[in-house]
Write a structure and sequence with these properties.
Layout (H helix, E strand, L loop, with lengths): L15 H4 L2 H20 L3 H14 L3 E2 L12 E5 L3 E6 L9 E7 L4 E12 L2 E9 L12 E8 L5 E6 L19 H5 L13 E5 L11 H14 L9 E7 L4 E3 L5 E4 L2 H16 L6 E7 L16 H12 L5 H10 L1 E4 L3 E2 L21 E4 L15 H13 L4 E3 L14 H5 L4 E6 L1 E3 L6 E4 H17 L1
Parallel strand pairs: 1-2, 4-13, 4-14, 14-18, 15-19, 16-17
Antiparallel strand pairs: 2-3, 3-13, 5-6, 5-10, 6-9, 7-8, 7-10, 11-12, 12-20, 16-18, 19-20
Bound molecules: manganese (II) ion (2 copies).
């Protein structure tokens, strides 16, 4: 079933449907059910981190506390601000000799509520939003959205908000203009300009308070509802992080149900498969680290992003667990470590093949994708993984019989983008982008092949076990 290039001198390009037997696909479908449950429960970076923490604790992991954690725990959990997480399992060899890292991100494009969101206009109550990440604005119009997030009152009390994703919940919506009146104000404009960001506001109420003398009667009624339901006042929005995300859950797509459609698969598909691979890896020669960071979609900035000290601090604590506390040892650990920048890549679009280069594009259902470089305008901003590293990785995947393919971020000069890979590479780590291909990336309903989710899990697991 494997033996790449044994019978042919040409690169093997085969779908998992031709290559893998029914038993393999049965396992892939079963795996995707767990993934679907995770996705439906985890609509924000905070909810993802909470899900992973729960999974880790169920596997006996302990939350790491400097100087207090036992050095013989099966694994350790590191959480930063509820929005970035790392799971570490020691290997047989000391961490100082290098570890294997699978790093993904759990933030996804969405509409964030502004700090002062609530107002009324033309007898309608509304919430102002500020979009987060690379959204195509038209995809978020006239679509049911849920509000998920946290509100922290000034006494420190935290209120978890999840409204809109349960079947009987109300939803929130940015209502698009009717076609009859869109000719001049929308249809003459470019698609990325026709709906200004300041008009991405959510309808949130209609019924005014009884007092006909009062000002802003609808806003007052919404505030009254919020106070009665959550005990909050308007100022509490100042210390809140509330995200408008698609209200709909995951669905099977197509007659054969081979594709899973859901919001937020960039990059929760890699985060979930990375964590499952870490928890289920059977034998570890080297220490294994599954990391899921935040803020990738806005440049990996902030204290929970890949450019922060989070990963470095975790690696330093991992060394400390083994009694090593030197800066030089940390630098050596970085250089001797190997990483997969676990992120999705575009699948070739059947109706828009012209933006891809078909010889180098990834295909749905063809397995885990290795992306040597991303970037734009002549690889600018790319990590561009070493040939030596790719050689070791393809050998690993071939020997473990994991379906894999190569991919790229579209035709030259068509566009471009990047991942967290370069931030790890800057510390001297071997790193390459590896994840499943997606269609409709960054849309409210991204598509993944279940077979690719499973291949990704198998690839990450093999990486932890034998790389
Ligand atoms: Mn991504
Ligand atoms: Mn993305």
């Amino acid at each position: 079933m494997t033996e790449n290039t044994k019978d042919s001198r040409e690169l093997r390009r085969e779908s998992t449907f031709d290559r893998c037997d029914q038993a393999w696909h049965d396992r892939a479908y079963a795996f995707s059910e767990g993934y679907r449950r995770f996705l439906d429960l985890s609509r924000t970076e905070r909810e993802c981190v909470a899900s992973f923490a729960k999974m880790a604790v169920e596997h006996g992991f302990v939350e790491y506390a400097a100087g207090e954690s036992p050095s013989d725990a099966p694994g350790y959990l590191f959480v930063s601000r509820g929005k970035a997480v790392a799971l570490y399992r020691p290997g047989r060899r000391p961490a100082a000799e290098g570890v294997n890292v699978v790093i993904s991100h759990v933030d996804s494009p969405r509409l964030d509520l502004k700090v002062n969101p609530l107002y009324e206009e033309q007898s309608v109550g509304l919430l102002k939003t500020h979009y987060y990440g690379g959204i195509r604005k038209h995809q978020w119009l006239s679509r049911p959205l849920a509000l998920h997030g946290v509100i922290v009152k000034q006494d420190g009390t935290e209120i978890d908000l999840r409204l809109g994703s349960a079947p009987d919940d109300p939803v929130f919506v940015v209502s698009d203009l009717l076609p009859h009146l869109a000719h001049k104000v929308q249809n003459t404009k470019k698609v990325n300009e026709f709906y200004p960001g300041e008009k991405l506001n959510l309808i949130c109420g209609l019924i005014p308070v009884d007092d006909q003398e009062a000002k802003n009667r609808i806003k007052a009624a919404v505030l009254e509802y919020l106070h009665q339901t959550y005990g909050i006042v308007e100022e509490d929005f100042v210390s809140a992080e509330i995200e408008a995300v698609p209200a709909a859950g995951s669905r099977d797509v197509g007659f054969d149900r081979a594709v899973l459609g859901a919001y937020g698969q960039d990059d929760r598909v890699c985060a979930y498969t990375g964590v499952r691979a870490l928890l289920e890896a059977e034998s570890l020669e080297r220490g294994a680290l599954a990391v899921a960071v935040d803020k990738e979609e806005i440049g990996s900035a902030g204290a929970t992003g890949a450019q922060s000290a989070f990963l470095e601090n975790v690696l330093a604590e991992v060394l400390a667990l083994e009694g090593v506390e030197s800066e030089l040892a940390l630098r050596r650990l970085n250089v001797h470590s190997s990483a997969l920048s676990a992120d999705v890549c575009p699948a070739i679009h059947p109706d828009w093949a012209e933006v891809h280069e078909k010889n180098n594009a990834a295909r749905l259902g063809h397995g885990l994708v290795l992306v040597k470089y991303t970037g734009a305008r002549g690889k600018a901003g790319a990590n561009d993984a070493d040939a030596e590293y790719l050689a070791r990785l393809r050998r690993l995947l071939n020997e473990a019989d994991v379906p894999w393919q190569t991919g790229s971020l579209g035709k030259i000069d068509e566009g471009g983008g990047g991942t967290v890979a370069k931030f790890l590479a800057a510390h001297g780590m071997n790193v390459i982008d590896a994840g499943p291909p997606l269609l409709g990336m960054h849309s409210p309903f991204e598509l993944v092949a279940k077979a690719d989710v499973y291949a990704t899990y198998l690839g990450y697991k093999a990486f932890f076990e034998t790389f």
